[in-house]
Each structure stands twice: as structure tokens, then as C-alpha cells.
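Support request from a user on the community tier.

User writes: "When I paste my C-alpha cells into the form, the page sometimes reloads and wipes my input. The last time it worked, I copied everything first. Here is what I submitted, just in case something in the input itself triggers the reload:"
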């Protein structure tokens, strides 16, 4: 517990394709940082209790992504730091859509184009209407192709390491059934792949930890989507949405393999059946994805923090210590 914990935090919850986003409107820590990337460092060093209090049980859940708004600048409508039960994210596609719909609902932005600063870089939001938003994401790329990874109890799997605002290992030959009725098996499988990645010391650029595992398979209906995915997030929750940063990483791999032309449309279905529509531009060998999806508000709440509450800053299980691993 921290004495800095405020009595109340105002939040708005939404979901984007089934994946929740909790936008913190007020009551968050006062930060000195002037950029979203520095805000992550300051939160990590001095205010991590805040992340856990907002996201962990009993006020949050493993599935939820938090979004702490930072002040606007002359170029941006706001900055944002995304966080989950395991830590902080570089970017979050579904979360950016949730933030846009929340800002619109609060009268803080109008429909149209706006810049949003994230720790991974500035993304462009196009707010089409009260639900639909496109996010022009940060530059995405495939970093390593067709890596052979020995995974205990599974065998050798092959996959690509790609960046889409977060780091992903996309398994190419998993032979798993991507279906909502199979999430326990998929979670165990993906957690083993991630553990093997850690043990192999494979990393992204600048030694970044590859903390998201993505499995793609056929869509539930080829008329509606091109692929269905399962994405295991760092804290062992699976993404209910098609994962904006994961779809961006997938797009980078498709374009590198000449399986999708520039400006081609990719309809990415999630494990829950929700869909993001993705396209990409190319520039200097990098892929600039645009992800379109819809978000819906689910709650406006005041989180309360009683100094007598033993769980005032959340109940924190160590990710990886449960039976998903
Ligand atoms: O949409 O980028 C995304 C995302 C990352 C983790 C959960 N959702």
C-alpha cells in the first residue's frame, strides 16, 4: 500500500471487440514526465501500486487494459500509458480505439483526425462516429523469420518475431484449433512457447522481451474474415479483440512474405469472433498499419480506496505461476 493512493479514481470502461479498456480520467498520480515513454519509467519506479490498484482484482481483472491519460500538447489530443496485470505496454490497438470513443463520449474530442502520443510513438486516430475508429499505428516490421524453437512437451515450432507496437512471436506451424471452446489448451500451449522463448534468450530489437504469442488459423467464415487469431498477453490473459498491435505484426509478416500487397485489406478475426479491418502503407521498408474497429462504453465508475482495506492496491498473482504455464 502507498500513502500516495488517492481516495477516489474516476474511470470509464469500454470494450473493443470484447477486450476491455479502463480509461483513468482523474485521480491518477501527478507525473513530472513530459513524454509517454518517460511516464512509463516514472510509473514503474514510483507509482506501480496505482497500476495494480486499478487493474488487479478486486477492482479490475486480468483481462483489463488500463489507459492513464496524459496532458495534451500542441500536436496531440492527449498522451496515454497503457498497462495490464503484468506491467506497461508500448502501444495498444484496441485500447487506442477505446480511448478515442471515451474521449468523444466525454466531449473532449470531435469526430475526425487526432494524434495520440503513446510510449511506442505517436499514432493517428480517425474517429468515424461514436463507435468506429481507425488507428494509424507506429511502424511495424518483421524482425526474424521462421525461427525454429524447441518447446518442451510440444517439440520444435517455427515462427516469426515481429513488432507492431509490442513484440510478438507468431507461430506458423501450431496445428491448434483456434476456437473459443479451446482457450484453456491454447493458453497452455502459448505459455509454453513463451517460456521456451525466454529460455532460448531470443529477443526483439534492443534486447526487448517478446511477451505476446500469436497463433493464427482459418476464419470462422471466409466471407467475413481472412484469419482468426489467438493472442496470449504478458499476464496470461488472452486478447478478446483481434489485437491491434498483433494484427500490425501479422500485417508486417504478410507483406514481407508477399502475401498481402500495399493497401490490401486484411480482415482479422479474434478468438471471440470480433473483427478488425487492417490495411498498410509501406515506407522505407517499414509497414504502417491502419486498424479499424469499434468500441462500446460499459461503465462510468468511481474506484474507492479505503485505507483500512488490505487489498487497497490489488491482489497480485505472479503471472506464469498458474496452470496456463
Ligand atoms: O489491441 O494491441 C492490442 C492489444 C495488446 C494487448 C491487448 N490488446
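"...and here is what came back when it finally went through:"
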Amino acid at each position: 500500500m502507498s500513502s500516495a493512493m488517492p481516495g477516489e479514481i474516476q474511470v470509464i470502461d469500454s470494450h473493443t471487440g470484447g477486450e476491455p479498456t479502463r480509461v483513468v480520467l482523474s485521480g491518477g498520480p501527478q507525473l513530472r514526465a513530459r513524454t509517454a515513454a518517460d511516464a512509463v519509467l516514472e510509473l514503474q519506479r514510483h507509482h506501480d501500486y496505482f497500476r495494480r490498484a486499478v487493474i488487479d482484482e478486486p477492482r479490475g481483472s486480468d483481462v483489463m487494459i488500463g489507459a492513464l491519460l496524459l496532458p495534451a500538447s500542441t500536436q496531440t489530443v492527449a498522451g496515454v500509458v497503457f498497462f495490464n496485470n503484468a506491467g506497461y505496454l508500448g502501444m495498444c490497438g484496441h485500447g487506442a480505439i477505446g480511448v478515442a470513443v471515451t474521449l468523444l463520449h466525454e466531449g473532449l474530442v470531435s469526430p475526425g483526425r487526432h494524434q495520440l502520443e503513446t510510449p511506442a510513438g505517436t499514432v493517428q486516430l480517425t474517429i468515424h462516429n461514436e463507435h468506429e475508429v481507425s488507428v494509424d499505428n507506429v511502424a511495424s516490421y518483421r524482425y526474424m523469420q521462421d525461427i525454429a524453437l524447441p518447446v518442451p512437451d510440444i517439440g520444435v515450432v517455427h515462427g516469426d518475431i515481429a513488432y507492431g507496437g509490442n513484440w510478438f512471436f507468431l507461430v506458423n506451424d501450431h496445428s491448434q484449433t483456434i476456437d473459443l471452446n479451446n482457450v484453456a489448451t491454447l493458453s497452455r500451449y502459448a505459455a509454453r512457447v513463451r517460456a521456451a522463448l525466454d529460455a532460448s534468450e531470443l529477443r526483439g530489437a534492443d534486447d526487448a522481451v517478446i511477451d505476446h504469442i500469436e497463433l493464427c488459423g482459418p476464419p470462422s467464415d471466409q466471407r467475413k474474415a481472412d484469419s482468426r487469431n489467438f493472442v496470449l498477453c504478458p499476464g496470461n490473459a488472452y486478447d478478446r479483440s483481434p489485437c491491434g498491435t498483433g494484427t500490425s505484426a501479422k500485417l508486417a509478416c504478410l507483406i514481407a512474405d508477399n502475401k498481402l500487397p500495399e493497401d490490401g485489406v486484411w480482415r482479422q478475426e479474434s478468438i471471440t469472433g470480433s473483427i478488425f479491418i487492417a490495411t498498410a502503407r509501406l515506407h522505407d521498408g517499414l509497414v504502417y498499419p491502419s486498424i479499424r474497429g469499434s468500441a462500446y462504453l460499459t461503465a462510468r465508475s468511481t474506484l474507492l480506496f479505503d485505507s483500512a482495506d488490505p487489498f487497497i492496491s490489488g491482489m497480485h498473482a505472479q503471472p506464469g505461476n498458474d496452470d496456463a504455464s
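Agent notes: The reload is a front-end session timeout and is unrelated to the input. Residues 183-200 form the longest helix (18 residues). The longest strand covers residues 286-304. Escalated to web team.
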